[in-house]
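@channel sequence for tomorrow's demo:
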Amino acid sequence: MECQNYNITRGVERENLNLNPLQRGGILPREAREALYEFGDGYSVCDYCAGRLDEIAKPSINSFLDDLATFLHVDHVRTVHGAREGKFAVMYAMCEPGDPIVIDGNAHYTTHLAAERAGLEIIEVPNSGEKEFKIDLNKYQETLELAIDKYGEIKLALLTHVDGNYGNLSNAKEFGEICSDLNVPSILNCAYSMGRLPIDGNDWNIDFVVGSGHKSMAASGPIGVLGMKDEWAETVLKRSPRHVKKEVEMLGCTSRGAPIATLMASLPHVIERVNNWENEVELTQEFVSKLEKIDGIEQLGTKPSEHDLVRFDTPILHEISKNHPRKGFFFYEDLKKRKIVGIKRGQTEWFKCSTYGMSKEQRDYVANSILEIVEKFAN
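structure tokens (generated this afternoon):
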């Protein structure tokens, strides 16, 4: 068989400023790129495995998981294949098919899919609607209480810490207190927060936290993180009676090779950058302020923004697209000429972006470029 050339190359990050919120927190530092090369082979971390991934001492996955648990202020940590797999593992272990769970109206689609796959009934707390799309935790508590009254027991409640559409940051500690007072186990989806901002599972009284290594923790992925309180370890990390070393919900082992090696290599870098979170938020707010000075561009979600992911309503770009020869593609193409990528092709009514990790000069360049494009075509 003669195989075609698949052209597996990518210069996006090396040659451009990438605004894609999915990717800003996943950029590998030098140490992780070296680990990627060293552990690129499929089962490369399993050379000295005695049957448990979390007990491997060379490379020191066992001590890494201890450090990760300390970093997140939880009792136990396992790596999984992504935040969605972490959510599913908890749902499947904690609930029975047909059980209701309560989730927020800004939940990621993978929360819905995880619940559907586990056969659960979803009770949703709606967001506030335009233009904030905020989750009111008083409304969440009311919905949870009504669900308890109706069903007698709710085995799990989930909150999206930072949602992927608007970048709204919810109050995790208040959520933890609500669930604790109502005796409902809580799960916090930290896909856009773990690795970007400080997480404190114990102080927030959260039973489970899930995160994304490749989205927010500078790992090559796919890899996720699942943290939990000690009281749930026996349920979620139960062992197989046939294969006594293997944890059933983890299907024996999860991430092997490059994903976990890069997550390990990036942890010191991630710990350091989390300490810079307040500065990141200030720079994002300044970036938003510059864009909102353009007539026809407005930030959606809570204001001022509390996260690097921001969404803009952009009627001015949509108006330009109606008369531009390249229609809705003009904005993407003009940004790319300026070596700015990450905005979806053909999208002009709105866009979301992140400048996480960029310098102030780079952020100013992006904002000024968007202003130049609008001024170029608006008249």
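heads up for whoever presents: The two ends are 57 Å apart (CA to CA).
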